[in-house]
Design brief:
The chain is of the alpha/beta class and 214 residues long. It has eight helices and seven strands, in the order ααβαβαββαβαααββ. 35% of the residues lie in helices and 26% in strands.
Amino acid sequence: MPEQVHEHRHFIPAMGQQRLTGLYDLFGRLAGVSAMHRYLVDRAGIPADADVLEIGCGTGNLALLVKRRQSAATVVGLDPDHLALTNARRKSERHRLDVRFDHGYADELPYPDRSQDRVLSSLMFHHLEEDGKARALSEALRVLRPGGELHLLDFTGGSGSRSRRLPERIRDNADDRIPERLRAAGFVDVTRTGTVSARWRLGSCTTFSGRRPA
């Protein structure tokens, strides 16, 4: 079982405000998030018996997709939002998928060193403050086994005037900032693995990967 984590910390819910969390799955369908999740999992190359952790799992859609793809994998989702976790656990029970959903924070992972083969992050990274991004990546590196991989999907903006209209948290992912942060955290073989279009003028979403040195 994970260690106890702090219960009362500020975080940005998936929809920006916790009262909107119940609308997240509807928003996700309209924004094409399911296709983004499939794109990320395709690139993650998850082994059949892997230990997989999703940080910032929200209502659990990506973690559940991983379990559908690799039924022998051990899949855990982590999120600070109790309401989102409640929805995720209901889905897991309804679809009879054995995925554990834990309460916690990406920058303070309650898991042992070298316990995961893959760490996944989808549309969460832009929610973190500058220091939180560095700590979250360091924590992801810590819990990965040697040779294990982080696969990250997030908004990376666009170009020109459209990019300037995007929120600062998204513009902060532009250019090479995410790869630079991955390398600074200690990841090697850092790669921009692909780009998918987001709907509703949210710009581009890009997938990145990095590996813990063997």
